Amino acid sequence: MRHIWARHSSTLSSLLQTPSVALSSRSCRPASAIALFRTKRAYQTQVARSSLVEEMETVNTTARLAAVRSLMKKNGVDIYVVPSEDSHASEYIAACDARRAFISGFTGSAGTAVITHDKAALATDGRYFNQAAKQLDGNWLLLKTGLQDVPTWQDWAAEESSGGKTVGVDPAMVSSSIAEKLDETVKKVGGAGVKAVSENLVDPVWGDDRPARSNNPVVLLPKKYSGKDTTTKLVDLRKELEKKKAAGFVLSMLDEIAWLFNLRGSDITYNPVFFSYAIVTPDSATLYVDAAKLNDECRTYLDQNKVSIKPYDTLFTDAKALASAAEANTTSGPPKKYFVSNKGSWALKLALGGDKFVEEVRSPIGDAKAVKNDTELEGMRQCHIRDGAALIEFFAWLEDQLINKKAVLDEVAAADKLEEFRKKQKDFVGLSFDTISSTGPNAAVIHYKPEVGACATIDPNAIYLCDSGAQFLDGTTDTTRTLHFGTPSPQEKKAYTLVLKGNIALDTAVFPKGTTGFAIDCLARQFLWKQGLDYRHGTGHGVGSYLNVHEGPIGIGTRKQYADVALAAGNVLSIEPGYYEDGSYGIRIENLAIVREVKTEHQFGEKPFLGFEHVTMVPYCRNLIEESLLTAEEKGWLNESNSQIRKNMEGKFGGDELTRAWLERETRDF
């Protein structure tokens, strides 16, 4: 739905200015953030019901490509790269930054477009092969990333550049490391290299149809939710800068800025962030944001924490001034360097003076944010109890509708009903991503998104997979459960149980401090591997605290980055193994878990040992479990988990006998 939101956000901006829904930027508190998220979601649903069906249709990109190619010639570029990200390296982007989707017609969240004067290619990963094949028109070649003998977009661009051709890219949309590696690859095959093109060549083609940048209000997240004030966070950051003799840190990642200053926004759908930059030095902290977005409470808080405010669009001017000042001081010896995140843009590095004055590092803010404090951890526990209550009520309702009432429900209607149940919960703000509500073969599409008018009717005799999450003031949730309301096949039960065994194996793992998510990924896959089965996605991702549902730098999987960063006590991750039978069914079981220290009989090497505490409070589908495949220990784990769920749900459902009976049945002892 986020791309329908992209198409109509300017209309919503007008809607928000009407007296009935306007939000005052001078009086907006967390409750106002809730209203804002709900207003956006309501409008998304309204728009989606009228026009979402077109989202999976092919877009004719001939005229758009011709216009971009004309601009390429004017800028001396032979190949032009259009990434998915925005200038803040955001995974999920605002409507105004969906350039790759506009130029290619492909609306998936991951992918890179490469345009030459006579060809165009779109590279994406296995989650989106089917969607891209449906949405790309005849102008585009689909590069299925990860498949054997399929080039990466970098290799394809380099191959097209041979013979002295130039590759162009907007330097604000890629990191300097990506630009440098691409330049090296291009030159190896005889290309002229990579050129920074300061004007984004898609924007003039998009023209007046491009949505306006959001001007939604920013709100303060009180300490009762954040657990730590900004002054304390700045002290910790400055200690890191002093230790590494840095001149300062220039922040560009939106979730890092939101976390550091204890502020939240809604400039990107489902992600409570706002467009901003920041510069922190040993004696100053500056937040670059549109001041009109800040209410009196935010301004007072920033002032109390000695944070100055400057306009968002003056960051690059100030960055150049810092570079000039550093250049003037080189007479007394090598200058101290400014730190930028290794995900920061090439444009930012260039503005700060390049390698001479800039060091790219794994962000110390990202590392600090990933280790939740006690308040954030308790918030995660509590919001998952409330979220679990909503999911339990939903699953009980859905089964009753399908089996007892013989209702006909489609995937979108089910997703909307789940949101209704979530809205009743305390401190609910909005969803944390598009709900994946999928029946039968659609459940085999890993990142399936049901669409009004084009989605399936839920089949009670087929597997139903629901992957969903919410934003609460005290935390972020992400839960997947797979159910079957009829009689599952032996193959479905076996696959489900193998996935469940993998989830239990990882949940109960104990490992020494210093272990990475890369090292333990195999624990979740082992039972599938023994059967010659696997899944094409990571096993776990970090999760923010009322922030982005996907949060680095930690995770569990085979990505190189997961081998670089060890798991630490206080991390919150998903554990989500799965199995997908294309054209038939899909299975995924996802819990969120806190990394914590555990007591062991011994302590080899005097290292602490770590384990997981799962916080998701939703039972597993009894109908899909093949008990004969479970060990006594696994049954004991399930019984303990179910007992914990029942205890946390006491008093949650009042006189709702339907939900209480469903919960009792699903959590009975093995």
The residue-averaged pLDDT reads 91
The biggest sheet, with number of strands, parallel, antiparallel or mixed sense and barrel status, is: 6 strands, mixed
- Evaluate the radius of gyration: 25 Å
Low-confidence stretches: 1-55
Strand line-up across the major sheet? 4-3-2-1-5-6
- Global shape: globular
Spatial gap, N to C terminus: 40 Å
The level of helicity is 25-40%
Oligomer: single chain
The count of strands amounts to 28
How much of the sequence lies in strands comes to 15-25%
Secondary structure class reads alpha+beta
Enzyme class: hydrolase
Cofactor: Mn(2+)
Pfam families: Creatinase_N, Creatinase_N_2, Peptidase_M24, Peptidase_M24_C
Keywords: Aminopeptidase, Hydrolase, Manganese, Metal-binding, Metalloprotease, Protease
List its salient traits.
single chain, 670 residues, alpha+beta, 6-stranded mixed beta sheet, 22 helices, 28 strands, 17% strand, globular, disordered N terminus
Task: Explain what this protein looks like in three dimensions.
This protein has 22 helices and 28 strands. It has 670 residues and is of the alpha+beta class. A six-stranded mixed β-sheet has the order 4-3-2-1-5-6, with helices on both faces. Strands 12-11-10-8-13-14 form a six-stranded mixed β-sheet. The radius of gyration is 25 Å and the shape is globular. The N terminus is likely disordered. Catalyzes the removal of a penultimate prolyl residue from the N-termini of peptides. One of its GO terms (biological process) is proteolysis. This is Probable Xaa-Pro aminopeptidase P. It catalyses: Release of any N-terminal amino acid, including proline, that is linked to proline, even from a dipeptide or tripeptide.
